[in-house]
From TrEMBL, chain A:
The lineage of its organism: Bacteria, Pseudomonadati, Pseudomonadota, Alphaproteobacteria, Rhodobacterales. Keywords: Cell membrane, Membrane, Transmembrane, Transmembrane helix, Transport. It is a multi-pass membrane protein. GO terms for biological process: transmembrane transport. It is found in: Cell membrane. GO terms for cellular component: plasma membrane. The chain crosses the membrane at residues 20-40, 82-106, 141-160, 196-221, 241-268. This is Peptide ABC transporter permease. Belongs to the binding-protein-dependent transport system permease family.
TrEMBL record, chain B:
It comes from Cypionkella aquatica. It is a peripheral membrane protein. GO terms for biological process: peptide transport; transmembrane transport. The lineage of its organism: Bacteria, Pseudomonadati, Pseudomonadota, Alphaproteobacteria, Rhodobacterales. InterPro entries: AAA+_ATPase, ABC_transp_ATP-bind, ABC_transporter-like_ATP-bd, ABC_transporter-like_CS, Oligopep_ABC_C, P-loop_NTPase. CDD domains: ABC_NikE_OppD_transporters. One of its GO terms (cellular component) is plasma membrane. Transmembrane segments: none annotated. Part of the ABC transporter complex GsiABCD involved in glutathione import. Responsible for energy coupling to the transport system. Belongs to the ABC transporter superfamily. Glutathione importer (TC 3.A.1.5.11) family. This is Glutathione import ATP-binding protein GsiA.
UniProtKB/TrEMBL annotation, chain C:
This is ABC transporter ATP-binding protein. SMART domains: AAA (SM00382). The lineage of its organism: Bacteria, Pseudomonadati, Pseudomonadota, Alphaproteobacteria, Rhodobacterales. NCBIfam families: oligo_HPY. PANTHER family: DIPEPTIDE TRANSPORT ATP-BINDING PROTEIN DPPD, OLIGOPEPTIDE TRANSPORT ATP-BINDING PROTEIN APPD.
Length: 285, 325, 323
């Protein structure tokens, strides 16, 4: 399967200054996460109580925290935490959403009605309350965090896929596949999926920063990633408690959070414009 | 033996009412798409199904292949009744469909090669590249078309791919829905000639659905005229065009603009328009527009009757010579 | 002979596309006089829609008029300032589209739109409504008052086309351009719209341009015909001559291909071999030569426009001989 729009879309993305910036920020962020062990000058968990709350220096470019851990190393590893959680949660939610959306859109009417009812029910819960309730029951932690994101995101993704599938289920090429005897799984996977997934990809890429923010927010409240695992939220919290002594920590953890969020958002918006069919037609001079 | 035989086929779709109608089954209304459809198709024969938009001809075509459920009547293909999904699945190898919008009927993210291989793969047959090239050659396309995508094709080329895809499994019956819609006249001839040529070479039967009388006339052995979900006339093409028996067939043939300014139509053959399916006339469906309408047409629904050998008409007033009072 | 109402003079239009410049019109000329129904016929890609768009100056942005003129009562409308062009559109020159659904606003009633189309007229609203009602009756709408209260989607295709014709006539235009007016309609509705247009021309003080690919519509409706191929007018003739004494090989081939032209069924229909030339690099000689059964060496040079009679001409080296 080839995506005919691919190279054209990529070129359009790079031509757009916002899209290009998004692409660069996201690339840096991913590099930081993947190459964390190579980039980090110290072990992010190594304590050095004698060197606590130091200001930036040649030895510790971004200083240290209350326990003397190197902030730069913790930020770099924090990127890994954020990315792992965001990608895992979004990938899980995306796959389940796609599957449920395809089933709802292509399956029998009663199944569609039942699934839509469930999506609506999930959607009607206030997200924060829902998240807090799950965390209260299961206890904070990475797994809980991912579960919360998945449960909250599925209805939106599934609805998007369902709407696209509904509009295509009686398209000529689908009826044509039925007429040559294609099985339902074949129609779903070979013919519907490639044609409905585009818009979802954009939504997914724009949801990654939302998850990163959520992770940071909950970790800051000590409801997310459990210390001592480095997370930007945890670092922010540490910085908050030490803000009277040093503001380095807050800035050091806040900046990458802002940049990563901006990067993914720009990339998502750039992708949306680049893949928009209205831009795909021949543009007059 | 007849290849396809259809008896009293009917389709009613439920009208979606409000919540109250769901609670009270008696108040549920249905919309009749077509009814009392009976005809046969012999091996090697081409039947042209003509009618205007809203006559139900496309839905009927899909119902014949089990792509749309029916509410009444029976379909026999090669002598076996086709009722369940399994029955229809068993005949998929021997039937094929060509769609009105050829480009839209090709899955947009697959190459032409993959699209041609797909029927073979689905039915567990080998699909070597040579076979794909053969199919492309059969419909007059060069082999490098296998790597193209549907949106890269012109209307005529997409039609050819549609023909190739329909024939790749060596079917016995091909249902072609408006095979020349949207094509220029010069290309239209190419596609029809190709279909005629392949029909004799591969011993196919066609059911050709169209609103284009001039086209149907040249490719069909028999024609069936549909109006508002009813077959109103069936007969051999030549005789039906020479002496249409049903008033609707008469006005349809008389409405076709002829490419000759010396034969300008002076009077309107037919006034008014097809009623909505929601306001289907009782008794004869054509009564509202018929120039010959009689009281009986408003009270008794006419049956499709064989008025002379091979010629069937659904009209109280039709006579074997075609002229009406 | 009356003065031309509309004159298209050696018009050249180029489209700037991603794949280079495309010559959509190459020296197309046309004359329409008051009281005439002009047919412009050709297959897809021949430039007939571009020609129609140039008349009301609704060319797409990518189009560039490289030379030539479109004169309405002697004034070149392509060189008028935009406001003057807008004033001309709708008042003097009106258009009927192939799909009337797209010409109407789906959320306004027909009455509101028919009144709105008359925004330039300095008459009270009630009078505009009266006029709309009268025109709806004129185009054969069975219940004009009801139609005024209807939304576009509540009308059938044929009815919408009637309303579109009424809308086009609201401002009493002198040139009416109908782009494929019956293509989206069924045979019986097509016959009715042809009948209506033919009926209208009797009391209509202007010219009607009918753009179509359907030779049957041309034969039924038009007085004079321009046949277009690859951006050029290849033949111009009175309708009877066009069908009974065509001189350009393309016209002959086009008529031969129309299945409606055979009395008896034929197993093999005629076709035109080959393809339309690539208009990014139009041939220097005759554009039909590559597909023409009569083509000779001379056809590689630009063909002359041979005047066969005062009303008939053909763009062909070989049109001079006997038909």
């Amino acid at each position: 399967m080839r995506w005919p729009a691919d190279t054209r879309a990529l070129r359009a993305l790079i031509r757009d200054p916002m899209g290009l910036m998004g692409l660069i920020l996201v690339a840096l962020f991913i590099l930081m996460a993947v190459a964390a062990p190579l980039l980090a000058p110290y072990d992010p968990l190594a304590l050095d109580v004698r060197a606590k709350l130091q200001s930036p220096s040649l030895a510790h470019w971004l200083g240290t925290d209350q326990l003397g851990r190197d902030t730069l190393s913790r930020i770099i590893y924090g990127a890994r935490t954020a990315l792992t959680i965001a990608l895992t949660a979004i990938a899980l939610a995306g796959s389940i959403g796609i599957l449920l959306g395809l089933i709802a859109g292509y399956g029998p009417r009663w199944l569609d009605a039942a699934l839509v009812l469930i999506f609506d029910a999930l959607n009607s819960l206030p997200m924060m309350m829902f998240a807090l309730a799950i965390i209260t029951v299961l206890g904070p932690g990475t797994g809980t965090l991912i579960l919360v994101v998945v449960l909250v995101s599925i209805p939106g993704y599934a609805r998007l896929i369902r709407a696209q599938t509904l509009s295509l289920r009686s398209a000529d090429f689908i009826v044509a596949e039925q007429a040559i005897g294609a099985s339902t799984p074949r129609i779903l996977m070979h013919h519907l999926l490639p044609n409905v997934i585009g818009p979802l990809c954009i939504v997914l890429s724009m949801d990654i920063p939302v998850v990163i923010m959520l992770e940071a927010g909950l970790s800051y409240l000590n409801l997310g990633v459990k210390p001592p695992t480095p997370s930007w939220g945890n670092i922010l919290y540490d910085g908050y408690t030490a803000i009277r002594t040093s503001s380095t920590l807050v800035i050091a953890a806040g900046a990458p959070l802002v940049l990563a969020t901006l990067g993914f958002t720009f990339l998502g918006e750039g992708l949306r414009d680049a893949l928009d069919p209205r831009f795909a037609t021949a543009r007059p001079r | 033996m007849t290849l396809l035989s259809v008896q009293d086929l009917a389709l009613d779709l439920p009208l979606r009412g409000g919540l109250l109608s769901a609670l009270n089954p008696k108040s549920r209304r249905t919309l009749q798409i077509f009814a009392d459809v009976s005809f046969t198709l012999n091996p090697g024969e081409t039947l042209g199904l003509v009618g205007e938009s809203g006559s139900g001809k496309t839905t009927l075509a899909r119902a014949l292949l089990g792509l749309t459920a029916t509410t009444n009547g029976s379909i026999h293909f090669e002598g076996h009744p086709r009722r369940t999904t399994g029955d229809f699945a068993a005949m998929r190898r021997d039937t094929a469909m060509m769609f009105q919008d050829a480009i839209a009927s090709l899955s947009p993210r697959m190459t032409i090669g993959a699209l041609l291989a797909e029927p073979l793969i689905i039915h567990g047959q080998p699909a070597p590249k040579i076979k794909i090239a053969e199919m492309l050659a059969l419909v007059g396309l060069p082999p490098d078309f296998a790597t193209r995508y549907p949106h890269e094709l012109s209307g005529g080329q997409a039609r050819r791919v549609g023909v190739a895809r329909a024939l790749v499994l060596n079917p016995k019956l091909v249902i072609a829905d408006e095979p020349t819609a949207g094509l220029d006249v010069s290309v239209q001839g190419e596609i029809l000639n190709l279909m005629t040529d392949l029909k004799t070479r591969l011993n196919l039967s066609y059911l050709i659905i169209s609103h284009n009388l001039a086209m149907v006339r040249h490719v069909s052995d028999r024609i069936a005229v549909m109006y508002l979900g009813r077959l109103v006339e069936i007969g051999p093409t030549r005789e039906t065009f020479a002496r249409p028996l049903h008033p609707y067939s008469q006005s349809l043939i008389a409405s076709e603009p002829l490419p000759d300014p010396r034969k300008r139509r002076q009077d309107l053959a037919i006034k008014g328009e097809i009623p909505s399916l929601l306001n289907r006339p009782k008794a004869c469906v054509f009564q509202g527009r018929c120039p010959h309408v009689q009281p009986i047409c408003r009270t008794d629904p006419p049956n499709l009757r064989e008025i002379s050998p091979q010629r069937f008409v659904r009209c109280h007033l039709a006579t074997p010579i075609g002229a009406l009072a | 002979m009356t003065e031309p109402l509309l004159e298209i003079d050696a018009l050249n239009i180029t489209y700037h596309t991603d794949h280079g410049k495309l010559s959509a019109l190459r020296g197309a000329s046309l004359i329409a006089r008051t009281g005439e129904v002009i047919g412009i016929v050709g297959e897809s890609g021949c430039g007939k829609s571009t020609l129609a768009a140039s008349v009301i100056n609704l060319l797409p942005q990518a189009a560039e008029v490289t030379s030539g003129a479109v004169r309405y009562k002697g004034t070149d409308i392509l060189r008028l300032p935009p406001e003057a062009q807008r004033a001309l559109r709708g008042q003097d020159i009106a258009m009927i589209f192939q799909d009337p659904m797209t010409a109407f606003n789906p959320v306004l009633t027909m009455g509101a739109q028919l009144v709105d189309f008359q925004h330039a007229a300095q008459i009270p609203r009630a009078e505009k409504l009266t006029r709309a009602r009268a025109l709806l009756a004129r185009v054969g709408m069975p219940d004009p008052d009801l139609t005024l209260r209807r939304y576009p989607h509540q009308l059938s295709g044929g009815m919408r086309q009637r309303v579109a014709i009424a809308a086009a006539l609201l401002m009493n235009p002198t040139v009416l351009v109908a782009d494929e007016p019956t293509t989206a309609l069924d045979v019986t509705m097509e016959a009715q719209i042809i009948h209506l247009l033919r009926d209208l021309r009797r009391d209509y003080q202007g010219a009607i341009l009918v753009i179509t690919h359907h030779l049957g519509v041309v034969a039924e409706l038009c007085d004079r015909v321009y046949v277009m191929y690859a951006g050029e007018v290849v033949e111009e003739a009175v309708v009877d001559d066009l069908f009974h004494a065509p001189r350009h090989p393309y016209t002959r081939a086009l008529i031969a291909c129309d299945p409606g032209h055979f009395e008896q069924p034929t197993p093999i229909l005629p076709t035109i071999q080959g393809r339309l030339p690539d208009l990014r690099t139009p041939p220097t000689g005759c554009s039909f030569a590559a597909r023409c059964p009569l083509a000779e060496a001379i056809c590689a040079t630009p063909p002359p426009r041979i005047q066969i009679s005062p009303t008939q001409s053909a763009l062909c080296h070989k049109a001079g001989g006997q038909p």
